[in-house]
C-alpha cells in the first residue's frame, strides 16, 4: 500500500489520471543498456520532449535545450564520441561528485555489481569492466541520443530544473514503450560535445539521454535496482 487514502481520480478531458498510472510508469522504467536499432518515429520523439517540458522550473525559465540525433547522425556521433573517449581527457562542465561515502557508496556499488553480474563481469576483471564502461560511448547501441544543456548563468538551479526534465523525458518515453538511459559519462567529454554540436559557451552541457526500443533479451537489461524506504528518506517534523 503506497497511500493511506484512496487516490483521488482527476479528470483531464477524456483521460483519467490516477496515481496508479504514474506509479506504473515509475516502476516499469529502468535504465536501458542495450537497444534495438529500430528508430523511434519523429512524432513520438516530439511528444516525449513536449511532455518532458511540462515539469516545473524556477521562474518558469524552462532552461532545458536538447540536441537530438537520429539515423546516420547517431552513428556518426557514436563513432566520434567513442574516438574521443579512447583518446581524450574527461572535462565535464558540471564537476563530477568528489566522492561517494557511506550509504551512497553502498548503493553505487550495489548497482555496479548488479550490472556486472548481469553481463558476466567478474569482480576484479578490470579489462571487462572497462569494456562495459565503454558501452556508454557506443550509446549502448541506441538509435537516438539527446544532449541536454542549460544556461550557465542559471547555475545549479538550471541544472536542478533540467534534472526534472530528464526524469520526465524518461517517463514520457516509457509511456510510449521507448526505453532510455541518462548518461553523465557522455557529458564528461563536454569540450568535444560543445564543438560537435556547436553548443554556445554560455550553456552548460549536463548529460546525455540515449533512447530507443529495448533489447529485452540482452543480459544488461536483466536486472533492476531497488530503492530505500520512507524511513531513509523522510525526517518527519510534527
Ligand atoms: C543524471 C544521471 C546520470 C547517469 N549517468 C549514467 C551513466 O553515465 N552511465 C550509466 O550506465 N548509467 C547512468 N545513469 C543511470 C543510473 O545508474 C540509474 O538511474 C540508477 O542506477 C538507477 O537505476 P534505474 O535507472 O534502472 O532505476 C545515470 C542516471 C542519472 C539520473
Structure description:
With 238 residues, the protein is α+β, with helices and mostly antiparallel strands. The protein is 43% helix and 14% strand. It is built from nine helices and six strands; from the N terminus they run E-E-H-H-E-H-H-H-E-H-E-H-H-E-H. Strand 1 and strand 2 form a beta hairpin. The two termini are 23 Å apart. The site of flavin mononucleotide has 12 residues, from strand 5 and helix 7.
Map the helices and strands.
Elements: E1 10-12, E2 15-17, H1 19-28, H2 42-52, E3 65-69, H3 71-87, H4 102-119, H5 126-134, E4 144-151, H6 155-175, E5 179-183, H7 184-187, H8 190-197, E6 203-212, H9 230-233
Antiparallel strand pairs: 1-2, 3-4, 4-6, 5-6
Helix pairs in contact: 2-6
The structure holds flavin mononucleotide.
Mean pLDDT: 94
- Beta-strand level of the residues, as a percent range? 5-15%
Largest sheet: 4 strands, antiparallel
Helical stretch tally: 9
Compact overview of the structure:
The protein has nine helices and six strands; from the N terminus they run E-E-H-H-E-H-H-H-E-H-E-H-H-E-H. The protein has helices at 19-28, 42-52, 71-87, 102-119, 126-134, 155-175, 184-187, 190-197, 230-233; strands at residues 10-12, 15-17, 65-69, 144-151, 179-183, 203-212.
Name the descriptors.
two-stranded antiparallel sheet, 43% helix, binds flavin mononucleotide
Amino acid at each position: 500500500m503506497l497511500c493511506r487514502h484512496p487516490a483521488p481520480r482527476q479528470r483531464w478531458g477524456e483521460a483519467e489520471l490516477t496515481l496508479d498510472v504514474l506509479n506504473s510508469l515509475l516502476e516499469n522504467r529502468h535504465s536501458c543498456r542495450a537497444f534495438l536499432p529500430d528508430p523511434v518515429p519523429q512524432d513520438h520523439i516530439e511528444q516525449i520532449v513536449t511532455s518532458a517540458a511540462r515539469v516545473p522550473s524556477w521562474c518558469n525559465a524552462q532552461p532545458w535545450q536538447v540536441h537530438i540525433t537520429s539515423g546516420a547522425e547517431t552513428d556518426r556521433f557514436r563513432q566520434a564520441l567513442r574516438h574521443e573517449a579512447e583518446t581524450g581527457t574527461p572535462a565535464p562542465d558540471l564537476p563530477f561528485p568528489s566522492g561517494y561515502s557511506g550509504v551512497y557508496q553502498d548503493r553505487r556499488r550495489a548497482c555496479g555489481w548488479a550490472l556486472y553480474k548481469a553481463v558476466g563481469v567478474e569482480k576484479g576483471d578490470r579489462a571487462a569492466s572497462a569494456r562495459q564502461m565503454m558501452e556508454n560511448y557506443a550509446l549502448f547501441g541506441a538509435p537516438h541520443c539527446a544532449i541536454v544543456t542549460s544556461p550557465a548563468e542559471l547555475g545549479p538551479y538550471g541544472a536542478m530544473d533540467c534534472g526534472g526534465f530528464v526524469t520526465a523525458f524518461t517517463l514520457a518515453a516509457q509511456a510510449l514503450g521507448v526505453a532510455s538511459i541518462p548518461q553523465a559519462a557522455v557529458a564528461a567529454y563536454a569540450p568535444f560535445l560543445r564543438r560537435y554540436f556547436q553548443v554556445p559557451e554560455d550553456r552548460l552541457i549536463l548529460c546525455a539521454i540515449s533512447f530507443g526500443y529495448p533489447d529485452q533479451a540482452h543480459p544488461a537489461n536483466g536486472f533492476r535496482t531497488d530503492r530505500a524506504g520512507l524511513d531513509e528518506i523522510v525526517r518527519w517534523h510534527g
